[in-house]
């Protein structure tokens, strides 16, 4: 009961002092004075008169006088949507066309019309769940960037997949059936993918990017992924 109550509210109130009038510029100044750093963005939301403060890739909330900073997620109790996470996904969007797709394993199913990219580790359990979901999808093109960040042998498995004659099949066999391909001897772009992940602040796997640039951190149910793809124009 208490857990459900917590998820429906803003949590972790931190008194920081300060004052400002209800406009973005003055709120920004007051926030900067309170946290000792320049926020990346400040804007008024339509929720309880709160202001959204973006700092270091994270979202905080404050009142118009900046008497309080609030950390945590805002959950819509009717739709059960995590409004904070949705906003973070938009803020962390990228330009899909700038992704170096030549560094990814390309999998095409059906007409391949629907396109998205993923960053995955071969030892990631959620990535394996995603792979099983993808096995039943059709008419998609998936670019999988092999991001070995979880286990000691993640890099070895990633290299083995990249060096396989059929990379898409090798990746599917590994993630769906647990079949590890023979050790790779080619020059795999692992360091380049790691640098790319750092550039885009990708800290976990799987991380999905839609062609509209939207970022989806973590695995989501297949139905939700299908819905997201249908919304991309």
Q: Mind sketching the topology for me?
A:
Blueprint: H1 2-7, E1 11-15, H2 24-35, E2 41-44, E3 51-55, E4 58-62, E5 68-71, H3 83-91, E6 105-109, E7 114-120, H4 125-134, E8 140-146, H5 154-163, H6 167-177, H7 190-199, E9 207-210, E10 215-217, H8 222-231
Parallel strand pairs: 7-8
Antiparallel strand pairs: 1-5, 2-3, 3-4, 4-5, 6-8, 7-9, 9-10
Helix pairs in contact: 5-6
In short:
With 233 residues, this protein is α+β, with helices and mostly antiparallel strands. It folds into two domains: 85 residues, Roll (Nuclear Transport Factor 2, Chain: A); 136 residues, Glutaredoxin (3-Layer(aba) Sandwich), CATH 3.40.30.10.
- Give me the count of strands: 10
The overall pLDDT average reads 87
Order of helices and strands: HEHEEEEHEEHEHHHEEH
Instruction: Show unreliable segments.
Output: 1-22
**CATH architecture field of the largest domain:** 3-Layer(aba) Sandwich
Net shape: elongated
Give the neighbour order of strands across the main sheet.
1-5-4-3-2
> How large is the share of residues in beta strands?
15-25%
| CATH-defined superfamily of the largest domain | Glutaredoxin
Instruction: Write down the oligomeric state.
Output: single chain
Terminal CA distance:
41 Å
Q: Tell me about the biggest sheet? A: 5 strands, antiparallel
Q: Could you say what the CATH topology of the largest domain is called?
A: Glutaredoxin
Instruction: Tell me the structural class.
Output: alpha+beta
For the CA atoms, what is the radius of gyration? 21 Å
Helix-residue proportion:
25-40%
CATH class of the largest domain: Alpha Beta
Whole-number total of structural domains: 2
Can you count the helices?
Answer: 8
């Amino acid at each position: 009961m208490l857990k459900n109550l917590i998820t429906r509210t803003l949590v972790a109130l931190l008194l920081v002092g300060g004052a400002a009038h209800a406009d973005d510029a003055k709120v920004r100044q007051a926030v900067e004075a309170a946290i000792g750093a320049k926020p990346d963005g400040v804007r008024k939301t339509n929720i309880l008169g709160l202001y959204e403060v973006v700092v270091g890739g994270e979202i905080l909330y404050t009142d118009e006088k900046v008497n309080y900073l609030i950390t945590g997620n805002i959950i819509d109790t009717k739709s059960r949507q995590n409004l904070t996470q949705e906003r973070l996904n938009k803020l962390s969007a990228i330009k899909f066309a700038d992704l170096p797709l030549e560094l990814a394993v390309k999998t095409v199913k059906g007409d391949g019309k629907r396109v998205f990219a993923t960053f995955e580790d071969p030892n990631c359990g959620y990535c394996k769940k995603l792979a099983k979901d993808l096995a039943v999808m059709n008419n998609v093109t998936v670019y999988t960037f092999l991001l070995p960040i979880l286990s000691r042998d993640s890099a070895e498995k990633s290299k083995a997949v990249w060096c396989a004659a059929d990379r898409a099949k090798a990746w599917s066999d590994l993630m769906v059936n647990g079949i590890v391909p023979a050790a790779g001897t080619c020059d795999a772009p692992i360091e380049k993918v790691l640098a790319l992940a750092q550039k885009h602040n990708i800290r976990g796997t799987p991380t999905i990017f839609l062609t509209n640039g939207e970022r989806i951190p973590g695995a989501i149910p297949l139905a939700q992924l299908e819905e997201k793809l249908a919304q991309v124009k």
